[in-house]
Q: What sequence folds into this?
């Protein structure tokens, strides 16, 4: 046996725990005060897609939305890991058209949609996926918008040394108060770089995103615009049945949530000026959702029992177990008021 | 920080470990001697689909294969979690026809095929999934074969109190030398029961499966028949590109391998009369594969570097990291000769 982050989420089957998910999480005020944490939150963590709002901030701050006539749905898509449903992909094409660009300018690669339903719909209609279906295509459209607005050659915009990515790096460094020059960096699933940072720096960034007066001045209004666009258009941040979409719909403007690959989740809560960042050690997305639900519930937000303790159903819809937070791990989350 | 099973597998991205998978594993001789173990192998573990060979044994021992003209592919399917490809589903229909039964007799429920490719192919051809596509449909056909051979009413054969499942329970108890009457039991994904047992009991069962003279006498020839059928027809145990299929093809009769849901894997190695059972705490199937590859490699089997350390590629096929065994966890696996 070795030392490890605590178990945050368990999966049960009948009378026994079948699987368990360890992890780390932190809740921070925009002042930098940690109000709760668990596990090793100093550990370097790749935020993956959870950082998308900060990848969009320099583009919004550049004036691109006004220059190209981008609307709130376009802005929501820049923060999205979307499901590749027709409503998503049609808007991505319109977004590119506003920039005077097209699908071939996207450098994100392609994949069948993340969700089975969207994959089946696409195949049923005898279409194959292209870059528009990549869950990051909205983010990439936003990166292209920054390049167009700054009149940078947009070719290679996804590479770490391109001015677009350098502008994003500096934005993240300033918003999250962290050094990325010496941080591990890797192409993400969509090839744009992802820089690792301590988990508490990610929480700080989203606490400030929830309280944008704490961000560098030029990002104040852009952060407000992105928060508003995403929370008013949660379908475009994820898609049908997805957790980010469900939760932002249910919380009706009280929280911005975003998943990242390999078990990362962030949230920004303006009413308390709080940021939350968590990472499941195993990379489980479902466990990350249950952990996030538990934190939001303990902070006082109205979270349904189904989000806190989802039932596991088998192929005949029989309930065989549940996924549940380990109560003791979250028991000392304080009242944020 | 709390005590935990050791990390067996890490996922890396650039210069950093991104995710980690803890787990437990045991390698046992058919005599019951543990030659290597790691983590808490006493812990009750649901074997899930890894137990399928033992769910098929009573049917083979009943004489059903001869009575109904079942061939080796039918037997391989009874041990399978298949991909739902056309070659699988056509054989399942033939299997049911041999029994004088049809699709509506299967009680496994249905789902879109586990693999994206098979799902896309099915949707592209404007078909919807039914029970034949359930990855357990071959196992269920085998359960129906036992009911027909014993002239039991096959309706409700998937319920824990049906004679079919009671015969399977007694078979597992005797082969794995474990008590299941007082064990946690739950409907599996396909509704047939799965009983939890200590991980080392699962390893013992498959060590005896590798050395069937150690099984109760009536299961000796049936175990040989199932081993031979599965290892000679590995496509029918899983499917295109799947780990069980790849490994059994590459090892060419030297090993029987089978995945179980939630990060379980078993193997049976006749040349050394060894059984292996492992369970990743997180339930990760990919981590279980890498851990199994590492154990087989350290025991002396020829395992390719790609199976031991698979590269992670992004949507543009760029290598972003790898999944690798933690060498120190496996360093003391002995030479089995």
A:
């Amino acid at each position: 046996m070795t030392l490890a982050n605590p178990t945050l989420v368990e999966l049960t089957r009948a009378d026994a725990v079948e699987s368990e998910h360890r992890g780390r999480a932190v809740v921070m005020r925009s002042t930098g005060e940690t109000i709760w944490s668990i596990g090793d939150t100093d550990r370097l963590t790749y935020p993956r897609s959870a950082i998308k709002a900060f990848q969009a901030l320099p583009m919004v701050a550049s004036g691109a939305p006004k220059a190209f006539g981008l609307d709130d749905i376009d802005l929501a898509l820049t923060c999205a890991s979307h499901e590749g449903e027709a409503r998503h992909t049609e808007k991505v094409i319109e977004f590119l058209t506003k920039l005077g660009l097209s699908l071939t300018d996207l450098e994100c690669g392609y994949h069948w949609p993340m969700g089975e339903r969207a994959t089946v719909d696409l195949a049923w209609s005898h279409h194959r996926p292209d870059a528009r279906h990549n869950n990051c295509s909205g983010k990439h459209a936003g990166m292209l918008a920054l390049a167009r607005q700054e009149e940078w050659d947009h070719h290679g915009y996804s590479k770490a040394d391109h001015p677009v990515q350098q502008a994003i790096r500096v934005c993240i460094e300033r918003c999250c108060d962290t050094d990325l020059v010496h941080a591990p960096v890797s192409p993400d699933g969509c090839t744009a770089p992802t820089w690792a940072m301590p988990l508490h720096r990610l929480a700080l960034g989203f606490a400030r995103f929830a309280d944008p007066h704490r961000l560098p001045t030029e990002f104040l209004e852009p952060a407000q615009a992105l928060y508003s666009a995403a929370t008013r258009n949660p379908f475009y941040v994820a898609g049908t049945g997805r957790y980010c979409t469900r939760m932002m719909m249910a919380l009706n403007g009280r929280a911005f949530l975003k998943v990242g690959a390999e078990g990362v989740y962030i949230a920004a809560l303006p009413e308390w000026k709080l940021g939350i960042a968590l990472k499941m050690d195993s990379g489980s997305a479902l466990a990350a959702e249950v952990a996030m639900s538990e934190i939001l519930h303990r902070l006082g937000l109205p979270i349904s029992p189904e989000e806190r303790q989802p039932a596991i159903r088998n192929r005949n819809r029989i309930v065989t177990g549940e996924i549940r937070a380990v109560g003791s791990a979250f028991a000392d989350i304080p009242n944020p008021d």
Observations:
- Residues 251 and 302 of chain A are 8 Å apart (CA to CA).
- Chain A has a mean pLDDT of 97.
